[in-house]
Write a structure and sequence with these properties.
globular; seven-stranded antiparallel sheet; Alpha-Beta Plaits; alpha+beta; five-stranded antiparallel sheet; single chain; 18 strands
Length: 318
């Protein structure tokens, strides 16, 4: 097995900014990540699932199907990790715009960022096609057209899709990560903007000690890099230095929110920790991992935007 540094250097991410224009009035929950994930999944399945089966199990073309690869990400039988993981982490993250509205009137724009990891970025035209067909399809509960797909922001923004067609723009180079920290830190503060869900012994934790956070992040980064970016399997066991990093202050508190699962036909509670936590110690060896987590989120249910945080560091020496 390779080390985690190799996984970090293989990792690449593309960030796209999508805008959907409401064709009729429709309702969205206050936190839209789960609903947007549902729209994306229904759109891809409706457009690209050739078998029209309930699951992807046994499908002969699963490895070439955009729905299966992006939304299900099954681990192939015979893979070294198949006994431990039935599915790899999904190669995407949805980040809804900071928008509390729940009703969208005709012509309103529903905005969100879509991050695609590694090889999944090649599926962007298929994703846009699926969303376009789903939004205008008969019976959709959220009728919309895809108004635009862009990368970058402000003066650097490039339109990749507009007026119903791909523009041919090349976009920007992907976000990549270094295994070597620039500078150092003896203290970092993480602010979790969306609930972070981390498990220990199959139970969700109600506090976030540093060794537990970095083990969760390391596993996520290593699996994304291996399954979606072609990195060799990484050993995610971390040095004992993580045990020397302590929580010095925390405002983390549990926040519950509800989502509707169309697969299970029921409402579900999906809570996690929000707020800030400050860690002190020798943080320098862990900065590359924490910086990657800022982009790719931490914990469970990251696909629809949970575990989003930003980091401030102190005691930096360049």
């Amino acid at each position: 097995m390779s080390n985690l540094a190799t996984a970090l250097t293989h990792l690449s991410v593309q960030r796209y900014r999508l805008a959907l224009r409401a064709s009729k009035r429709f309702h969205m929950p206050q936190y839209k990540g789960s609903a947007l994930r549902g729209i994306l999944g229904h759109a891809l399945r409706r457009t690209f699932c050739a078998a029209k089966a309930e699951t992807c199990d046994g499908c002969m073309i699963a490895a070439q199907c955009v729905y299966c690869v992006v939304m299900e990400s099954p681990v192939a039988e015979g893979h070294a990790l198949a006994r431990k993981y039935r599915n790899a982490p999904n190669p995407y993250v949805i980040e809804p715009a900071d928008d509390d509205r729940d009703w969208y009137e005709t012509g309103d724009l529903l905005r969100f960022d879509l991050l695609l990891v590694g090889r999944a970025a090649a599926w962007l035209p298929s994703i846009v096609l699926a969303l376009s067909q789903y939004g205008t399809g008969r019976g959709t509960p959220t009728p919309f057209t895809v108004a635009s797909v862009a990368c970058g922001a402000g003066a650097d923004e490039q339109m990749l899709f507009q007026a119903g067609r791909m523009t041919g723009a090349s976009g920007f180079p992907p976000i990549t990560f270094s295994a070597r920290p620039r500078g150092g830190a003896d203290s970092v503060t993480l602010t979790f903007e969306t609930p972070v869900r981390v498990k220990q012994n199959d139970s969700l934790v109600t506090d976030l000690p540093f060794p537990l956070l970095v083990r969760s992040l390391a596993e996520r980064i290593a699996l994304l890099a291996h399954f979606h970016c072609g990195a060799p399997l990484a050993d995610v066991r971390l040095a004992s230095e993580a045990d020397g990093v302590a929580v010095t202050s925390s405002t983390l508190q549990w926040r519950d929110w509800k989502r509707y699962s169309s697969r299970q036909q029921t409402s579900m509670k999906l809570g996690g920790l929000v707020g800030t936590v400050t860690y002190a110690g020798d943080l320098t060896p862990f900065l590359p991992l924490l910086l990657a987590g800022e982009v790719l989120h931490a914990g469970k249910a990251t696909a629809f935007g949970l575990g989003k945080y930003h980091m401030k560091r102190r005691g930096v020496h360049h």
